[in-house]
Amino acid sequence: MKQSQLFTKTERFAPKDEETINARLLTRAGFVEKLMAGVYNYLPLGLISLQKIEQVVREEMNKIGGQEILMAMLHPKENWQTTGGWDKIDVLFKIKSRTEKDYALGQSEEEVVTPLIMRRARSQKDLPLYVYQIHWKFRDELRAKSGLLRGREFLMKDMYSFHADQADFDKFYEIAKEAYLKIFARLGLTAKVTEASGGSFSKKISYEFMVLTDAGEDDILYCDKCVFCVNQEIAKQKAGETCPKCKTGKLNRAKASEVGNVFDLGQKYGQDFDLGFTAKDGTKKYPVMGCYGIGISRLLGVIAEKMHDDKGLIWPEEVAPFKVHLLSLGQNEAAEKIYKDLLENNIEVLYDDRDISAGAKFADADLIGLPFRLVASEKSLKAGGLELKKRSEDKSEIVKEKEIVKRLK
Ligand code: ATP
Ligand code: MG
Protein backbone atom coordinates (compact mmCIF):
# COMPACT_ATOMS: atom_id res chain seq x y z
CA MET A 1 0.00 0.00 0.00
CA LYS A 2 1.13 3.52 -0.74
CA GLN A 3 1.35 5.64 2.36
CA SER A 4 0.12 8.67 0.43
CA GLN A 5 -3.24 6.86 0.16
CA LEU A 6 -3.46 5.90 3.82
CA PHE A 7 -6.01 8.24 5.38
CA THR A 8 -4.46 8.01 8.85
CA LYS A 9 -1.54 10.23 9.77
CA THR A 10 0.82 9.64 12.66
CA GLU A 11 0.66 12.01 15.60
CA ARG A 12 3.56 13.46 17.57
CA PHE A 13 1.71 13.46 20.85
CA ALA A 14 -0.57 10.96 22.50
CA PRO A 15 -4.06 11.98 23.63
CA LYS A 16 -3.98 13.46 27.14
CA ASP A 17 -6.50 11.01 28.52
CA GLU A 18 -4.59 7.87 27.50
CA GLU A 19 -2.39 6.58 30.28
CA THR A 20 -1.12 3.26 28.98
CA ILE A 21 1.70 2.67 26.55
CA ASN A 22 -0.47 0.51 24.28
CA ALA A 23 -3.17 3.14 23.83
CA ARG A 24 -0.66 5.97 23.45
CA LEU A 25 1.49 4.26 20.84
CA LEU A 26 -1.33 2.61 18.91
CA THR A 27 -3.16 5.93 18.70
CA ARG A 28 -0.09 7.93 17.70
CA ALA A 29 0.83 5.40 15.01
CA GLY A 30 -2.72 5.46 13.61
CA PHE A 31 -3.76 1.91 14.49
CA VAL A 32 -6.75 2.81 16.63
CA GLU A 33 -8.84 5.74 17.72
CA LYS A 34 -10.76 5.95 20.95
CA LEU A 35 -14.47 6.62 20.57
CA MET A 36 -15.06 6.66 24.33
CA ALA A 37 -13.57 4.93 27.36
CA GLY A 38 -13.18 1.24 26.57
CA VAL A 39 -14.38 1.54 22.96
CA TYR A 40 -12.03 1.89 20.00
CA ASN A 41 -12.27 2.25 16.26
CA TYR A 42 -9.79 0.10 14.35
CA LEU A 43 -8.12 1.95 11.49
CA PRO A 44 -6.47 0.32 8.44
CA LEU A 45 -3.17 -0.62 10.13
CA GLY A 46 -4.85 -1.70 13.35
CA LEU A 47 -7.42 -3.79 11.54
CA ILE A 48 -4.78 -5.68 9.55
CA SER A 49 -2.88 -6.49 12.75
CA LEU A 50 -6.07 -7.56 14.50
CA GLN A 51 -6.90 -9.84 11.58
CA LYS A 52 -3.41 -11.34 11.69
CA ILE A 53 -3.84 -12.25 15.35
CA GLU A 54 -7.26 -13.68 14.47
CA GLN A 55 -5.71 -15.80 11.75
CA VAL A 56 -3.09 -17.33 14.04
CA VAL A 57 -5.81 -18.20 16.53
CA ARG A 58 -8.09 -19.54 13.79
CA GLU A 59 -5.39 -21.81 12.36
CA GLU A 60 -4.60 -23.35 15.75
CA MET A 61 -8.29 -23.78 16.62
CA ASN A 62 -8.94 -25.50 13.29
CA LYS A 63 -5.98 -27.82 13.90
CA ILE A 64 -7.57 -29.20 17.06
CA GLY A 65 -10.91 -29.77 15.33
CA GLY A 66 -12.68 -26.48 16.02
CA GLN A 67 -15.52 -25.55 13.64
CA GLU A 68 -15.86 -21.82 13.14
CA ILE A 69 -19.28 -20.22 13.41
CA LEU A 70 -20.58 -16.70 13.95
CA MET A 71 -23.24 -16.25 16.59
CA ALA A 72 -25.55 -13.34 17.20
CA MET A 73 -24.46 -10.51 19.47
CA LEU A 74 -28.00 -9.40 20.30
CA HIS A 75 -29.59 -12.00 22.58
CA PRO A 76 -33.11 -12.57 23.88
CA LYS A 77 -33.53 -11.98 27.61
CA GLU A 78 -35.10 -15.43 28.04
CA ASN A 79 -31.85 -17.29 27.37
CA TRP A 80 -30.09 -15.28 30.05
CA GLN A 81 -32.92 -15.84 32.50
CA THR A 82 -32.69 -19.58 31.90
CA THR A 83 -29.10 -19.65 33.17
CA GLY A 84 -29.54 -17.02 35.88
CA GLY A 85 -27.12 -14.67 34.13
CA TRP A 86 -29.71 -11.94 33.60
CA ASP A 87 -29.68 -11.13 37.35
CA LYS A 88 -26.26 -12.42 38.37
CA ILE A 89 -23.82 -11.11 35.76
CA ASP A 90 -22.98 -7.53 36.65
CA VAL A 91 -21.17 -6.73 33.39
CA LEU A 92 -24.12 -7.78 31.19
CA PHE A 93 -25.34 -4.92 29.01
CA LYS A 94 -29.14 -4.91 28.85
CA ILE A 95 -31.15 -3.19 26.18
CA LYS A 96 -34.82 -2.26 26.21
CA SER A 97 -36.62 -2.07 22.90
CA ARG A 98 -39.31 0.52 22.18
CA THR A 99 -41.65 -2.46 22.17
CA GLU A 100 -40.70 -3.01 25.84
CA LYS A 101 -38.90 -6.25 25.00
CA ASP A 102 -35.54 -6.83 26.74
CA TYR A 103 -32.33 -7.95 25.11
CA ALA A 104 -28.77 -8.60 26.22
CA LEU A 105 -25.54 -7.94 24.37
CA GLY A 106 -23.29 -11.00 24.28
CA GLN A 107 -20.57 -10.91 26.96
CA SER A 108 -19.92 -14.65 26.48
CA GLU A 109 -22.14 -17.03 24.55
CA GLU A 110 -22.98 -20.17 26.53
CA GLU A 111 -26.59 -18.96 26.48
CA VAL A 112 -26.66 -19.11 22.69
CA VAL A 113 -24.31 -21.95 21.87
CA THR A 114 -25.82 -24.52 24.23
CA PRO A 115 -29.26 -24.65 22.55
CA LEU A 116 -27.63 -24.20 19.13
CA ILE A 117 -25.47 -27.31 19.51
CA MET A 118 -27.61 -29.50 21.72
CA ARG A 119 -30.61 -29.31 19.40
CA ARG A 120 -28.35 -30.98 16.86
CA ALA A 121 -26.26 -33.30 19.02
CA ARG A 122 -29.03 -35.74 19.88
CA SER A 123 -27.05 -38.88 20.54
CA GLN A 124 -23.69 -39.82 21.98
CA LYS A 125 -22.28 -40.50 18.53
CA ASP A 126 -22.68 -36.80 17.67
CA LEU A 127 -20.17 -35.90 20.40
CA PRO A 128 -17.62 -34.52 21.04
CA LEU A 129 -18.09 -31.21 19.24
CA TYR A 130 -15.91 -28.11 19.31
CA VAL A 131 -17.22 -24.82 17.92
CA TYR A 132 -15.72 -21.38 18.12
CA GLN A 133 -16.21 -17.86 16.89
CA ILE A 134 -14.17 -14.68 16.71
CA HIS A 135 -16.55 -11.89 17.52
CA TRP A 136 -17.19 -8.74 19.53
CA LYS A 137 -18.17 -8.93 23.15
CA PHE A 138 -19.78 -6.26 25.28
CA ARG A 139 -19.18 -5.83 28.99
CA ASP A 140 -20.17 -3.06 31.33
CA GLU A 141 -16.70 -2.90 32.88
CA LEU A 142 -16.35 -0.38 35.69
CA ARG A 143 -12.80 0.63 34.92
CA ALA A 144 -11.70 0.90 31.33
CA LYS A 145 -8.42 2.78 31.56
CA SER A 146 -5.98 0.25 30.19
CA GLY A 147 -6.43 0.96 26.51
CA LEU A 148 -7.05 -2.20 24.50
CA LEU A 149 -6.41 -4.33 27.57
CA ARG A 150 -9.85 -3.65 29.00
CA GLY A 151 -12.59 -2.75 26.61
CA ARG A 152 -16.31 -2.38 27.05
CA GLU A 153 -16.45 -3.67 23.50
CA PHE A 154 -13.65 -6.08 22.59
CA LEU A 155 -12.79 -8.88 20.21
CA MET A 156 -12.68 -12.36 21.69
CA LYS A 157 -12.19 -15.86 20.36
CA ASP A 158 -14.59 -18.06 22.28
CA MET A 159 -14.64 -21.79 21.80
CA TYR A 160 -17.12 -24.19 23.43
CA SER A 161 -16.67 -27.94 23.66
CA PHE A 162 -19.35 -30.54 24.25
CA HIS A 163 -18.47 -33.99 25.58
CA ALA A 164 -20.29 -37.17 26.49
CA ASP A 165 -18.35 -37.59 29.73
CA GLN A 166 -15.73 -36.08 32.01
CA ALA A 167 -12.90 -38.30 30.76
CA ASP A 168 -13.39 -37.11 27.19
CA PHE A 169 -13.48 -33.52 28.35
CA ASP A 170 -10.28 -33.92 30.39
CA LYS A 171 -8.46 -35.22 27.33
CA PHE A 172 -9.51 -32.28 25.17
CA TYR A 173 -8.78 -29.77 27.92
CA GLU A 174 -5.10 -30.65 27.75
CA ILE A 175 -5.10 -30.46 23.94
CA ALA A 176 -6.65 -26.99 24.08
CA LYS A 177 -4.07 -25.87 26.63
CA GLU A 178 -1.23 -26.93 24.33
CA ALA A 179 -2.87 -25.13 21.38
CA TYR A 180 -3.04 -21.98 23.47
CA LEU A 181 0.64 -22.09 24.32
CA LYS A 182 1.40 -22.50 20.61
CA ILE A 183 -0.72 -19.49 19.72
CA PHE A 184 1.00 -17.21 22.21
CA ALA A 185 4.44 -18.43 21.13
CA ARG A 186 3.59 -17.68 17.48
CA LEU A 187 2.64 -14.17 18.53
CA GLY A 188 6.04 -13.72 20.16
CA LEU A 189 4.69 -13.95 23.70
CA THR A 190 5.54 -16.17 26.62
CA ALA A 191 2.45 -17.03 28.60
CA LYS A 192 2.58 -18.38 32.13
CA VAL A 193 -0.23 -20.73 33.03
CA THR A 194 -1.96 -20.34 36.35
CA GLU A 195 -4.05 -23.19 37.56
CA ALA A 196 -7.00 -22.22 39.65
CA SER A 197 -9.39 -24.53 41.41
CA GLY A 198 -12.99 -23.60 40.70
CA GLY A 199 -13.95 -23.89 44.37
CA SER A 200 -13.48 -26.31 47.25
CA PHE A 201 -16.63 -28.36 46.55
CA SER A 202 -15.88 -29.05 42.93
CA LYS A 203 -13.00 -30.73 41.21
CA LYS A 204 -13.29 -28.25 38.37
CA ILE A 205 -10.17 -26.45 37.36
CA SER A 206 -9.39 -23.61 35.03
CA TYR A 207 -6.24 -22.28 33.48
CA GLU A 208 -5.44 -18.62 33.00
CA PHE A 209 -2.78 -17.67 30.47
CA MET A 210 -0.82 -14.71 31.78
CA VAL A 211 1.69 -12.46 30.04
CA LEU A 212 3.91 -10.43 32.32
CA THR A 213 3.41 -6.70 31.81
CA ASP A 214 3.16 -3.73 34.14
CA ALA A 215 0.01 -2.65 32.28
CA GLY A 216 -1.74 -5.86 33.31
CA GLU A 217 -4.43 -5.88 35.96
CA ASP A 218 -3.65 -9.22 37.57
CA ASP A 219 -1.05 -9.94 40.24
CA ILE A 220 0.57 -13.31 39.88
CA LEU A 221 3.17 -15.32 41.78
CA TYR A 222 5.48 -17.42 39.68
CA CYS A 223 8.43 -19.65 40.40
CA ASP A 224 11.82 -18.53 39.06
CA LYS A 225 12.81 -22.18 38.43
CA CYS A 226 9.75 -24.17 37.32
CA VAL A 227 6.33 -23.62 35.67
CA PHE A 228 4.45 -23.02 38.94
CA CYS A 229 2.24 -19.93 38.72
CA VAL A 230 -0.82 -18.75 40.67
CA ASN A 231 -3.08 -15.74 40.67
CA GLN A 232 -2.37 -13.74 43.83
CA GLU A 233 -6.14 -13.27 44.29
CA ILE A 234 -6.62 -16.90 45.30
CA ALA A 235 -3.15 -17.87 46.34
CA LYS A 236 -2.18 -19.30 49.72
CA GLN A 237 1.45 -18.44 48.97
CA LYS A 238 3.33 -15.16 49.32
CA ALA A 239 6.14 -13.55 47.34
CA GLY A 240 9.59 -14.65 48.50
CA GLU A 241 8.42 -18.08 49.69
CA THR A 242 9.90 -21.30 48.38
CA CYS A 243 7.98 -22.78 45.44
CA PRO A 244 5.51 -25.46 46.63
CA LYS A 245 5.97 -27.41 43.39
CA CYS A 246 9.71 -27.77 42.79
CA LYS A 247 10.71 -26.90 46.40
CA THR A 248 13.87 -25.15 45.18
CA GLY A 249 12.78 -22.01 43.29
CA LYS A 250 11.56 -18.77 44.83
CA LEU A 251 8.18 -17.14 44.19
CA ASN A 252 8.28 -13.79 42.43
CA ARG A 253 5.39 -11.39 42.28
CA ALA A 254 4.56 -9.64 39.00
CA LYS A 255 1.84 -7.77 37.18
CA ALA A 256 0.32 -9.68 34.30
CA SER A 257 -2.46 -9.53 31.75
CA GLU A 258 -4.75 -12.50 31.19
CA VAL A 259 -4.69 -13.14 27.45
CA GLY A 260 -6.74 -16.31 27.56
CA ASN A 261 -8.33 -18.91 29.74
CA VAL A 262 -9.89 -22.32 29.55
CA PHE A 263 -12.69 -23.25 31.87
CA ASP A 264 -14.56 -26.37 32.90
CA LEU A 265 -18.30 -25.60 32.75
CA GLY A 266 -19.42 -29.03 33.95
CA GLN A 267 -23.02 -29.92 33.08
CA LYS A 268 -24.57 -26.61 34.14
CA TYR A 269 -25.67 -25.32 30.76
CA GLY A 270 -27.17 -28.55 29.46
CA GLN A 271 -29.09 -28.83 32.72
CA ASP A 272 -30.26 -25.20 32.68
CA PHE A 273 -31.71 -25.59 29.18
CA ASP A 274 -32.71 -29.20 29.86
CA LEU A 275 -31.01 -30.20 26.65
CA GLY A 276 -29.25 -33.52 26.75
CA PHE A 277 -28.35 -36.39 24.44
CA THR A 278 -29.18 -40.07 24.35
CA ALA A 279 -26.24 -42.00 25.77
CA LYS A 280 -25.07 -45.40 24.50
CA ASP A 281 -27.08 -47.15 27.24
CA GLY A 282 -30.25 -45.37 26.14
CA THR A 283 -30.46 -42.96 29.08
CA LYS A 284 -30.60 -39.18 28.73
CA LYS A 285 -27.43 -37.37 29.76
CA TYR A 286 -26.28 -33.77 29.89
CA PRO A 287 -23.06 -32.84 28.09
CA VAL A 288 -19.91 -31.88 29.94
CA MET A 289 -18.90 -28.52 28.48
CA GLY A 290 -15.79 -26.41 28.36
CA CYS A 291 -15.26 -22.82 27.31
CA TYR A 292 -12.02 -21.39 26.00
CA GLY A 293 -11.48 -17.65 25.57
CA ILE A 294 -8.73 -15.59 24.02
CA GLY A 295 -8.71 -11.80 24.12
CA ILE A 296 -7.85 -10.94 20.51
CA SER A 297 -7.97 -7.16 20.88
CA ARG A 298 -6.35 -7.38 24.31
CA LEU A 299 -3.51 -9.30 22.66
CA LEU A 300 -2.91 -6.43 20.26
CA GLY A 301 -2.53 -4.15 23.28
CA VAL A 302 -0.32 -6.59 25.18
CA ILE A 303 2.00 -6.96 22.18
CA ALA A 304 2.31 -3.17 21.98
CA GLU A 305 3.09 -3.06 25.71
CA LYS A 306 5.80 -5.71 25.37
CA MET A 307 7.31 -4.76 22.02
CA HIS A 308 8.27 -1.13 21.66
CA ASP A 309 11.07 1.31 22.42
CA ASP A 310 11.15 5.05 22.98
CA LYS A 311 10.67 5.66 19.25
CA GLY A 312 7.64 3.46 18.71
CA LEU A 313 6.27 -0.01 18.10
CA ILE A 314 8.33 -3.09 17.15
CA TRP A 315 5.95 -5.65 15.65
CA PRO A 316 6.69 -9.35 15.43
CA GLU A 317 6.27 -10.55 11.84
CA GLU A 318 3.10 -12.54 12.51
CA VAL A 319 1.28 -9.42 13.70
CA ALA A 320 2.85 -6.53 11.74
CA PRO A 321 0.35 -4.92 9.32
CA PHE A 322 3.07 -5.08 6.64
CA LYS A 323 6.44 -6.80 6.61
CA VAL A 324 8.41 -4.01 4.95
CA HIS A 325 8.38 -0.22 5.16
CA LEU A 326 9.83 1.12 1.92
CA LEU A 327 11.00 4.73 2.05
CA SER A 328 11.91 6.76 -0.99
CA LEU A 329 14.18 9.70 -0.22
CA GLY A 330 14.08 11.63 -3.49
CA GLN A 331 14.70 8.39 -5.40
CA ASN A 332 11.23 7.54 -6.57
CA GLU A 333 12.19 5.57 -9.65
CA ALA A 334 14.25 2.99 -7.77
CA ALA A 335 11.64 2.82 -5.01
CA GLU A 336 8.73 2.38 -7.47
CA LYS A 337 10.51 -0.51 -9.12
CA ILE A 338 11.22 -2.30 -5.83
CA TYR A 339 7.64 -1.63 -4.72
CA LYS A 340 6.32 -3.43 -7.80
CA ASP A 341 8.78 -6.31 -7.33
CA LEU A 342 7.73 -6.77 -3.72
CA LEU A 343 4.03 -6.71 -4.60
CA GLU A 344 4.53 -9.22 -7.41
CA ASN A 345 6.24 -11.51 -4.94
CA ASN A 346 3.49 -11.16 -2.33
CA ILE A 347 5.72 -9.39 0.15
CA GLU A 348 3.53 -7.06 2.19
CA VAL A 349 4.87 -3.55 1.89
CA LEU A 350 3.94 -0.08 3.00
CA TYR A 351 5.54 2.35 0.58
CA ASP A 352 6.21 5.84 1.87
CA ASP A 353 5.94 7.71 -1.41
CA ARG A 354 5.01 11.03 0.21
CA ASP A 355 6.72 14.29 -0.52
CA ILE A 356 7.92 14.99 3.02
CA SER A 357 11.28 15.25 4.78
CA ALA A 358 13.56 12.26 5.33
CA GLY A 359 13.41 12.90 9.06
CA ALA A 360 9.61 12.67 9.08
CA LYS A 361 9.73 9.42 7.11
CA PHE A 362 12.27 7.84 9.46
CA ALA A 363 10.28 8.94 12.51
CA ASP A 364 7.10 7.42 11.06
CA ALA A 365 8.85 4.17 10.21
CA ASP A 366 10.10 3.88 13.79
CA LEU A 367 6.71 4.76 15.25
CA ILE A 368 4.70 2.37 13.06
CA GLY A 369 7.30 -0.31 13.69
CA LEU A 370 7.20 -2.66 10.68
CA PRO A 371 9.84 -5.44 10.95
CA PHE A 372 12.01 -4.26 8.00
CA ARG A 373 12.87 -0.79 6.73
CA LEU A 374 14.10 -0.38 3.17
CA VAL A 375 15.44 3.01 2.07
CA ALA A 376 16.08 4.17 -1.48
CA SER A 377 18.25 7.28 -1.37
CA GLU A 378 21.02 8.85 -3.44
CA LYS A 379 23.49 7.65 -0.84
CA SER A 380 22.24 4.05 -0.84
CA LEU A 381 22.16 3.85 -4.63
CA LYS A 382 25.72 5.15 -4.82
CA ALA A 383 26.69 2.44 -2.35
CA GLY A 384 25.12 -0.14 -4.69
CA GLY A 385 21.48 -0.65 -3.72
CA LEU A 386 18.93 0.02 -1.00
CA GLU A 387 19.54 0.25 2.72
CA LEU A 388 17.92 -2.58 4.69
CA LYS A 389 17.45 -2.42 8.45
CA LYS A 390 15.51 -4.46 10.95
CA ARG A 391 13.32 -2.38 13.27
CA SER A 392 14.64 -4.39 16.22
CA GLU A 393 18.32 -3.80 15.37
CA ASP A 394 20.55 -0.77 14.89
CA LYS A 395 22.82 -2.01 12.14
CA SER A 396 21.87 -1.64 8.50
CA GLU A 397 23.30 -2.96 5.25
CA ILE A 398 23.16 -2.18 1.54
CA VAL A 399 21.35 -4.81 -0.52
CA LYS A 400 21.58 -4.89 -4.31
CA GLU A 401 18.28 -4.17 -6.04
CA LYS A 402 18.25 -7.60 -7.65
CA GLU A 403 18.64 -9.35 -4.31
CA ILE A 404 16.03 -7.52 -2.28
CA VAL A 405 13.11 -9.83 -3.00
CA LYS A 406 15.19 -12.92 -2.24
CA ARG A 407 16.37 -11.39 1.03
CA LEU A 408 12.89 -10.47 2.19
CA LYS A 409 11.13 -13.68 1.17
P1 ATP B 1 -10.58 -10.44 33.29
O1 ATP B 1 -10.26 -11.16 34.56
O2 ATP B 1 -9.39 -9.78 32.67
O3 ATP B 1 -11.78 -9.55 33.42
P2 ATP B 1 -12.26 -12.57 32.45
O4 ATP B 1 -11.91 -13.64 33.41
O5 ATP B 1 -13.48 -11.77 32.68
O6 ATP B 1 -10.99 -11.59 32.27
P3 ATP B 1 -13.22 -14.20 30.23
O7 ATP B 1 -14.61 -13.89 30.50
O8 ATP B 1 -12.81 -15.58 30.47
O9 ATP B 1 -12.25 -13.18 30.98
O10 ATP B 1 -12.84 -13.79 28.74
C1 ATP B 1 -11.88 -14.50 27.94
C2 ATP B 1 -10.74 -13.58 27.56
O11 ATP B 1 -11.21 -12.37 26.99
C3 ATP B 1 -9.86 -13.14 28.73
O12 ATP B 1 -8.89 -14.10 29.02
C4 ATP B 1 -9.26 -11.85 28.20
O13 ATP B 1 -8.12 -12.11 27.43
C5 ATP B 1 -10.36 -11.30 27.33
N1 ATP B 1 -11.12 -10.23 28.02
C6 ATP B 1 -11.97 -10.35 29.05
N2 ATP B 1 -12.50 -9.17 29.39
C7 ATP B 1 -11.96 -8.26 28.53
C8 ATP B 1 -12.13 -6.86 28.37
N3 ATP B 1 -12.96 -6.16 29.14
N4 ATP B 1 -11.43 -6.24 27.37
C9 ATP B 1 -10.59 -6.94 26.57
N5 ATP B 1 -10.40 -8.26 26.69
C10 ATP B 1 -11.08 -8.93 27.65
MG1 MG C 1 -13.81 -9.90 33.55
Q: How would you characterize this protein structure?
A:
- The protein is an alpha+beta fold.
- It has two domains: 3-309, BirA Bifunctional Protein, domain 2 (2-Layer Sandwich); 322-408, Anticodon-binding domain (Rossmann fold).
- It is 29% helix and 30% strand.
- The protein has helices spanning 21-28, 44-63, 77-83, 85-88, 110-118, 166-186, 268-273, 296-306, 332-344, 358-368, 378-382, 404-408, and strands at residues 32-36, 39-42, 67-68, 74-76, 94-96, 102-105, 129-138, 153-163, 192-197, 205-212, 218-223, 229-231, 251-266, 277-278, 284-285, 288-295, 308-309, 312-313, 324-329, 349-352, 372-377, 386-390, 396-399.
- Strands 3, 7, 8, 9, 10, 11, 12, 13 and 16 form a nine-stranded mixed sheet that branches. Strands 20-19-21-22-23 form a five-stranded mixed sheet, with helices on both faces.
- A hairpin with a 2-residue loop joins β1 (32-36) and β2 (39-42).
- α1 (21-28) packs across α8 (296-306), α2 (44-63) runs antiparallel to α6 (166-186) and α2 packs across α8.
- The protein is elongated and about 80 Å long.
- The relative contact order is 0.13.
- The mean pLDDT is 96.
- The structure holds adenosine-5'-triphosphate and magnesium ion (MG).
- Adenosine-5'-triphosphate (ATP) binds next to β8, β13, β16 and α8.
